[in-house]
Write a structure and sequence with these properties.
The protein is α+β, with helices and mostly antiparallel strands. It is built from 18 helices and 6 strands.
Amino acid sequence: MIKTVKKYLQKNTEAAPLAVFRIFFGFMMFCSLVRFWLKGWIDELYIKPKYSFSFYGFEWIKPLGNYTYILFIICAIAAVFVMLGYKFRIAIVTFFLSFTYIELMDKSYYLNHYYFVSLIAFILIFLPANAYFSIDAKKNKELSFQKVPNWTIDSIKLMLGIVYFYAGLAKLNSDWLFRSSPLNIWLPVQNDLPIVGSLMPKVWFHFAMSWAGAIYDLTIPFLLLYKRTRIYAFIMVVVFHVFTRILFSIGMFPYIMIVSTIIFFDAKLHHRILEVVASIFRISKKYFDQNKTLFNVKKQKAIVRILTVFFIFQLLFPFRYLLYPGELFWTEEGYRFSWRVMLIEKAGYAEFKIIDKETNKQLYVTNSDFLSTIQEKQMSFQPDFILEFAHFLGDTYKERGMKNPQVYVDSYVTLNGRLSTQFIDPTVDLYQQKESFKHKNWITPFNHEIKIKGL
């Protein structure tokens, strides 16, 4: 086993796929950030709201007011430098830190693909993605290599494989497979689409899409790895992500996944892509074809150890939900950062009551006085949001002169089309409850069973 690993770590391959991935990744990230700015979302999501919801342990990360624009500018410039392979190590570290900071500013806007981008950026910190077809390689021959270790490219393939396969495992639950939920809620409203619109209300189509989605996610990494099925798998990737982009508003994610999967193809295709890029910008690709191989035993050992720990964490972390009692889709304890993509449709109602323990006076809160529409929606059905907002309200009314505030919530939630039921124990003073990794025993039990066979 050890000999096999050592032999694998000594294998080299063309650096072209890594260069193409770097270029596409940097370009897509730059476009995403510019799109975010042009749509006015920086102001709408991060500057205008009076309050921002924090991830546990990252409460110190907050929007920076008007300086948030500067943060986006820094992130966008870093993305361009990554694309060009200029000052690459500084650029990718800057991009990782700035993008991750943006992602953590308010968990109301959490998306799996933001997490994916942060993880890919972290991996790239340790890879020689600037070794070929980059400004760094052009300016410094010591950084220029035509061949790199196999594992540098395989690490990106592994990350993509985890995303797809774990998303497929998560779909192996009774709601997705045997109730076609939540697709049976989302698809009928798309009945005005050309050509396929008439299929959207059909029950059989909901089940077909549910099962096809699960099979696609579970098999696509392996089909991309196998040379004979690779081109067909890539066509499936394009069709799948274009179709989901038409059906759902999921931003740049489909395009990011499409261009990312190109890394599974052999170096010949990537050299052709680089030749096209070279011809467009009138630069010489031949300069980089020097047949030099990058190999540094000491540095490689350290990096491989770091990435090994990273991937072990990525393989285990999605299973942390097993440490919690209750239904995962209901409590969402261990739900985020686990590649559970589009599995639930929840809507909630949460009315907060503040009681002054000294005078026994009580008042009801208008959530919109403190939260934006998106924030209020997210808060209404996620227990950690509800707890955080309860503490915010308690602190707010304490500052307004209430000596001993108590905070209660009357909360009801519907999950995947089921009848709305009470979500939070209305007799619990949430202001006295502390956020932690422990189970929130003030969440009312789920009265149904969702059998999870996979992740």
